[in-house]
Hints:
Blueprint: E1 15-16, E2 25-36, E3 45-51, E4 57-63, H1 68-72, E5 80-89, E6 99-107, H2 113-120
Parallel strand pairs: 1-4
Antiparallel strand pairs: 2-3, 2-5, 3-4, 5-6
Amino acid sequence: MDSFFNDSNLAxxxxxxxxxxVGDAIxxxxxxxxxxxAKGDFKAQYAFSLKQDNGETINVGIRQSDYSTPRVEGxxxxxxVGFKFKEEMPSKKxxxxxxxxxxxxxxxxxxxxxERLAIESGEPVSDFF
Length: 129
């Protein structure tokens, strides 16, 4: 049982990045990508774990939309990915918070399938750049 409790089994990313003000941005190496279904008032989302230069993994969530879907479909583990809070737009629904416009950045990185698997498995990202 003790072999389970080691660094290779740590849950990915404890922190979630929050877009609080225009200009807030986050980028890193993509180590995990997943999506969530809509539940109640919450829209379906894409979620990403991004490895930072300091080794920390930060999670980012964005709403699934006609804008975001084609931009995230081509992202692969090991690619450099970023998100920036570009502007706020008034909500179309009265009483709702302003809509946050998040710009998506993506730089594909030429890695082998084995290298992508190694990154996803938790090997140090710096080994591949």
